[in-house]
Design goal:
It is a single chain. With about 350 residues, the protein is mainly beta. Helix content is about 5%, strand content about 55%. It contains 3 helices and 28 strands. Strands 4, 5, 7, 8, 9, 13 and 14 form a 7-stranded antiparallel sheet that branches. The chain has a 6-stranded antiparallel sheet with strand order 18-2-1-28-21-26, with no helix packed on it. Strand 15 (about 195-205) and strand 16 (about 210-220) form a beta hairpin. The longest helix has 4 residues, at about 40-45. The chain starts with a strand and ends with a strand.
């Protein structure tokens, strides 16, 4: 979102400023969602019970993960590293009951823990697409630990989660609540080609000396990813040919460095005109975008401009690869009352 401020005085001196904020997620398609589909076999999705203690039965069940899609689209900085993640809440049961008696009122919570293994070398969680690999970090959180607060944990082949108190039904909250979280490092996405990535993880739920095991298949559909970055505050002070103008360089990332297209509008509507306003007074401005990182083309609101030269680095390795120019003609300013004129510019980028 670009906010323009036009300062006019009653003398000849005019100052036009443009403030571009890096909050471009409002106006820009940044990282299209990565859809992670989770298929849970019947052995995990269905109730599992076994004899326990001679006269009782211990049971466990996972509800709410069947055929769910987990969308990885949120972005967060963790320990100075940008990650993209998705979360899914579900219900997990662990209880005992008398043999031959399934009355919910006769169930008792049974503590449990969780262990998850990957199928790659060293039990890492890695999704594959042919020779391409995509590392995934897996985290788990239970709603009611036996001790301590509910926190994200990383269950691995030698790392169990903390003991949870168990739950007798999904309505037995917060004891029945559980979450899974999948993280992808943004840096890992830069060199990954779009496609369908899959993997198999094994999940074990332990109830003291007993428990059950099942394999869970994961598939990530990875679309072509796009992101804009590097936009800073902009002040229109440059003069030339009876106009005010200023350029702002920025970075366009497309996974694999593919082509893209870009459009601009003066508001949330696709074809909103490029206008600065102060009350009922308006000043039109022009927008010029680059199709190759250097040459500039005047664009109309909502009209796509095909472009090349995207970066395969999320932040263009600290640089920029394209630019936008804002132009205010003198004849558009003449006769306007003094004041501050503001407008909003939306830029949208899509992979071609």
């Amino acid at each position: 979102m670009a906010i323009f401020s036009f300062h006019a005085s009653e003398v000849v001196a005019l100052v036009v400023s443009v403030m571009l904020y890096d909050v471009f997620s409002i106006a820009v398609k940044r990282l299209p969602p990565v859809v992670l589909s989770l298929w849970v076999p019947h052995s995990v999705a269905g109730l599992e019970c076994a004899l326990f203690g001679g006269t009782g039965v211990r049971c466990t069940d996972v509800i709410g993960l069947e055929n769910q899609e987990i969308t990885i689209q949120s972005e967060e900085v963790i320990n100075n590293t940008t990650v993209i993640y998705g979360e899914q809440q579900y219900c997990i049961l662990s209880y005992t009951r008398p043999f031959g008696n399934d009355d919910i009122n006769d169930r008792s919570r049974l503590p449990f823990d969780v262990q998850v293994d990957g199928d790659a070398a060293d039990d890492d969680f890695v999704l594959t697409n042919g020779d391409n690999t995509l590392p995934v970090a897996f985290q788990w959180r239970g709603g009611a630990p036996v001790s301590g607060a509910s926190v994200w944990e990383e269950p691995g082949p030698t790392n169990l989660t903390s003991d949870q108190q168990g739950a007798t039904s999904c309505d037995d909250q917060p004891f029945s609540q559980a979450w899974v979280r999948f993280e992808l490092q943004s840096s890992a996405l830069q060199s990954v080609q779009p496609g369908s990535y899959s993997g198999r993880f094994s999940v074990d739920i332990g109830q003291g000396p007993t428990g059950y095991h099942s394999d869970v298949n994961f598939t990530v559909n990875l679309p072509t990813l796009v992101k804009i970055s590097g936009l800073d505050d902009m002040v229109l002070t440059g003069r030339g040919n009876n106009r005010y103008r200023q350029e702002e360089p920025f970075c366009v990332f497309v996974s694999g460095g593919g082509d893209y297209r870009i459009k601009a509008s003066g508001g949330a509507e696709a074809n909103a005109p490029f206008l600065l306003s102060n009350g009922s007074n308006t000043i039109p401005y022009r927008v010029r975008l680059s199709r190759n990182g250097s040459n500039l083309n005047t664009v109309n609101p909502g009209v796509w401009l095909d472009a090349t030269g995207s970066s395969s680095s999320l932040n263009c390795n600290g640089g920029n690869n394209t630019k936008v120019r804002i132009v205010v003609q003198d004849n558009s300013v003449n006769g306007k009352p003094a004041g501050v004129y503001k407008g909003t510019l939306y830029l949208t980028v899509e992979a071609s």
